[in-house]
Amino acid sequence: MKKLALTVFFDTLLLICLGLIIVLTASSTISAIKFSNSLYLFNSHLIRVLIALVAMIGFSFIPYEIYKSVSKPLILFAVGLLIFTLLFAPEIKGAGRWLSIAGITFQPADIAKFLLIIHLSAMLEKKSDYLYDFRNAFVPMFIWVVGIAGLILIQPNISNGLLIIAIALTMMFVGGIHFKHIFLSSATMALSGGAIAMIFSHSRQRILSFINSIINGGDMNLQVKQALVSLGSGGLLGVGIGNSKQNNLFLPEAYGDFIFAILGEQLGFIGSVAVILFYLVLFIAGILIAKKAQDKFGQLLAFGITFSIAIYAFVNIAVATGTFPTTGLPLPFISYGGTSIIFLSMGIGILINIAIMNSKKSKVVENDLSDKKISEK
Predict the structure, then answer these.
(1) From the CB of residue 51, how many other CB atoms can be counted at a distance below 10 Å?
(2) 3-class DSSP state for residue 95?
(3) Burial class (CB in 10 A: 0-12, 13-18, 19+), 286
């Protein structure tokens, strides 16, 4: 388990360092034009990265069992924070998703997702003896999922809301909830989420544009078109670090949601595949930690954290390659951002702690068995 913890740590560190390099190159032009300082956005990202690394190391030393006892207050805090966001968040580009407190700007959806994973893990362990019971097991969990996701969907933040539902329902399935309940709720939530997405103009436009580009060969939106140009320009080996042309204001959000396209342009197909493999290694290591954990809470918490990182990476890369409609979701550990990288790093710290704590538990069990064999002889 300690080897898995080290794998997770160094794999994440590598992704973060790579992100620093790509953010530096992708943000220099817009920083120079907008802020008269080519390092402005990079410096801002660097501060967040340092906070994220401190958070990762700090949370790796906190025994993960603590979160189980405070999961209810934490999820109530998440609900309160999301309601506060709906009431007081300033509207930016047609959505109120961000809060600014004491000069620190953050997205409450990132916090809510993190706390929902903790609470669902605690509930699934607590109700492990009657998980097939629809009313006493499934419904209480589903209410929390609907509450958190619903408050995020109506911000509107469709992509984050839908992915939180996907993560929650997958955790519930893995945790032992009856598949029939999962399937029916998934279908209902998918239809509801689709309906909400079509109500808001920006999400409706993205979806219809994506469908039109597939069925009728219509033009993709500007970001996707320029992202594909960027990826295609990279070829097999890339144009080299710092030699991207698309980051010169051709590709909007080059340092954020579409950073994978800039990465592909600079590092080429081989570099892009290598980054995908880093995420795959992180996913496999996280799943192994979940599998080897000796308590259900640890298993589900490790799985939830790992799966959430993997699905966000998958969706971001799918958007950058034109496979999915534009979502506005960051690439984990690489995209420019604040709360995303900080809370992802907290999750990695918890994942590392699960591996370390269960490694110690395994040694205790082994020593007890060894002492028992000796005493029997």
Answers:
(1) 15
(2) strand
(3) buried
How far is the C-alpha of 2 from the C-alpha of 299, rounded, in Å? 16
Residues 252 and 258: beta-carbon distance below 8 Å? yes
Take residue 44 and report the two structure tokens written for it: 């801002």
Q: Is the pLDDT confidence value at 271 over 70? A: yes
Task: Of 183, 188, 319, give the one whose Cα is nearest residue 253.
Answer: 319
> Measuring CA to CA, how many Å separate 63 from each of 9, 58, 170, 197, 354?
17, 11, 25, 40, 8
The alpha helices in 235-332, defined as continuous H runs, are: 259-292, 296-320
Q: Are 30 and 250 in contact (CB under 8 A)?
A: no
Give the residue carrying structure tokens 């898995």.
4
Pull the structure tokens for residue 368. Answer: 């007890």
pLDDT of residue 144: 94
CA dihedral 109, 114, 116, 121 (to 10 degrees): 170
Between 324 and 237, name the one with better pLDDT: 237
Residues 26 and 335: beta-carbon distance below 8 Å = no
Total structural domains within the chain: 1
Rounded to two decimals, the pTM is 0.89
Is residue 348 within 8 Å of 1, Cβ to Cβ?
no
Find the helix or strand (DSSP H, E) in which 99 lies.
strand 99-101
Q: What is the pLDDT of residues 163-211, one digit of tens each?
A: 999 999 999 999 988 888 888 777 777 777 667 667 766 666 666 665 6
Whether the CB-CB separation of 293 and 354 falls below 8 Å is answered with yes
Q: Give residue 79's pLDDT.
A: 95
Range of 136's domain?
2-376
3-state helix, strand, coil in the chain (%, to 5): 75, 0, 25
